Amino acid sequence: MGFVKATPDVYVGPAPSEEDLRRFASEGVRTVVDFRDPSERKGPWDGPALAAKAGVSYVNIPVRTPQLSERELEELGQALAKEPGRYLLHCATGPRAEAMYIAKTALDHRWGPSQVAKEAGRLGFCFGGLPQLKAFVAHVAARHGEPPAHEPHH
Question: Domain locations in the chain?
Answer without folding.
Answer: 4-144
